[in-house]
Write a structure and sequence with these properties.
The chain is α/β, with parallel strands linked by helices. 26% of the residues lie in helices and 27% in strands. It has three domains: 199 residues, HUPs (Rossmann fold, 3-Layer(aba) Sandwich); 98 residues, Glutamyl-tRNA Synthetase, domain 3 (Alpha-Beta Complex); 152 residues, Ribosomal Protein L25, Chain P. It has a seven-stranded mixed sheet with strand order 12-24-25-26-22-23-13. Strands 17-14-20-19-18-21 form a six-stranded mixed sheet, with no helix packed on it. A four-stranded antiparallel sheet has the order 4-5-6-7. The longest helix is centred in the N-terminal third of the chain and has 16 residues. It starts with 15 loop residues before the first strand and ends with a strand.
């Protein structure tokens, strides 16, 4: 990553940025870009990062109480811990105060038009009758929103350009009535700010200097500038990055994941098939790998499509030196060998760092060995090299049983095959299922949470025991 790709104009100091997720679930890999880039820039320019929970939509994007803690845990694990945590739902009275001020300025009005009727006029660039009400009339209607009006009977709109070329920016809704429970404030409030109003006020009162977000949120900035202009405030510097499509995560959304977890499709938010940071952590994706991956994208406003294989490549490079090597035989089959001498084989735990020691197996003369099913795809009379052992000439193939005899000497070009005589049963949980097989007896010494590499299979993280079997979570190849 070049530092020039993540540089702010003017070399500012005391930068204040914010990361503002909706707390309806834990963070996903898609959220990580915002958290990582905001944290990096506040560290580089001596500022602070605000974590703001945009939780003022108790219905459409209903907050999940547990998600507040999950998100903070995710950010700490990612190395992007915030300097301050803000709950928008705790500041509703402040938003009411600014709503009254903007009404007094004549720049907002209470609209009682039916939704479709207003939409028709808006799309035609025609003001609705409510727009002409005086500030005094609007203040009276505003107060009625708190008790008299029902849901859908009134909203507060910010006056903009009713003939703006983008209909979405014409007199946008700032507050609406929603009756119901909120996980933090209960039923205390029934008039709730829309995200763009809440965000504009929060950014100002918290002293946010730079807003970094996706280009798909450009309209939010244009809406919020109306608020800033009416109050005579200076809008923060905005940096937009292009749409990022991560190929493997396109079908996932937080709401869909929540539904699938509730229905039993996935065991939880850390299921290895999900793109959540909790799942990445469980699998053994290092937080520093995710940070490097996200920072490498820079701040370009061009759209990009990338694969998680890029992240895996970064992670693989970081794990390669620390992960000890072991054998894993998926779907094992038997191999009987005649005449093989008994011996103790010693294979290094790591090919580069021999000082870490070895893993040992005592190979007994005339005993049965085990191969993975894939490695058993051999031809009769083919010579194979058992890793750590001599060569074997294949005599016969009988279903899931391979028979052969020991052949001395070095046979150049012989297919190298992993084998075990003693073993421990194990399972590897992958995004698309579970692989069952045998692994080195020394795998019993692996600590829970340790990441190892099963040679010619992939990296995996030890999770413990499950019904007597060692259980690993697949990281990547």
């Amino acid at each position: 990553m070049s530092e020039e790709t993540l540089k702010l104009d003017g070399d500012p100091q005391g930068v204040v940025t914010r990361f503002a997720p909706n707390p309806n679930g834990p963070l996903s890999i898609g959220h990580a870009r915002g958290a990582v880039v905001n944290k990096y820039l506040t560290q580089r320019y001596g500022g602070k990062l605000l974590l703001r929970f945009d939780d003022t939509d108790p219905r459409t994007k209903r907050p999940l109480k547990e998600a507040y803690g999950w998100i903070q845990e995710d950010m700490e694990w990612l190395g992007c811990g915030p300097d301050e945590v803000i709950y928008a739902s705790s500041n509703i009275e402040t938003y009411y105060e600014y709503a009254r001020k903007i009404i007094e300025l004549g720049q907002a009005y209470v609209c009682r038009c039916e939704r479709e009727a207003f939409k028709t006029k808006k799309n035609q660039g025609i003001a609705c009758p409510c727009r002409g009400n005086s500030a005094e009339e609007n203040m009276g209607l505003w107060e009625k929103m708190f008790a008299e009006f029902k849901e859908g009977e009134a909203v507060l709109r910010v006056k903009t350009d009713i003939q703006h070329q983008d209909p979405a920016l014409r007199d946008w809704t700032a507050f609406r009535i929603i009756a119901g429970e909120h996980p933090l404030v209960g039923s205390k409030y029934r008039v709730w700010p829309m995200l763009d109003f809440e965000s504009a006020i929060e950014d100002h009162i918290r002293g946010v200097t730079h807003i970094l977000r996706g280009i798909d949120l450009m309209d939010s900035g244009l809406k919020q500038k109306y608020i800033y202009d009416y109050f005579g405030w200076t809008y923060p510097e905005v940096i937009l990055w292009g749409r990022l499509k991560i190929e493997e995560t396109g079908k996932f959304s937080t709401s869909k994941m929540a539904q699938d977890i509730a229905s039993g499709v996935y065991s939880g938010w850390d299921h290895p098939a999900l793109p959540t940071l909790r799942a990445m952590k469980r699998r053994g994706i290092l937080p520093e790998s995710i940070r490097e991956f996200m920072l490498s994208l820079g701040l370009s406003d061009s759209a990009a499509a990338i694969s998680l294989e890029t992240l895996y490549s970064i992670n693989r490079a970081k794990l390669d030196g620390s992960a000890n090597r072991y054998f894993f035989l998926k779907d094992p089959v038997k191999l009987y060998v005649e005449g093989i001498p008994g011996k103790t084989i010693r294979l290094p735990l790591h090919p580069t760092f021999k000082e870490r020691g070895v893993r040992e197996q005592c190979m007994r003369e005339g005993s049965c060995f085990y191969l993975s099913k894939n490695d058993s795809q051999v031809e009769k009379e083919e010579i194979i090299k058992l890793m750590g052992l001599p060569c074997v000439s294949v005599d016969s193939l009988q279903g899931s049983i391979v028979k052969g005899k020991y052949v001395p000497g070095n046979h150049k070009g012989a297919k190298k095959i992993q084998c075990l005589q003693d073993y421990i049963e194990c399972e590897v949980l992958k995004p698309d299922g579970v692989d069952i097989g045998y692994c080195d007896p020394d795998c019993e010494k692996i600590g829970v949470g340790e990441i190892i590499q099963f040679e010619r299979y992939g990296f995996a993280k030890m999770e413990g025991k499950n019904r007597g079997k060692l259980r690993f979570i697949y990281t990547h190849d």
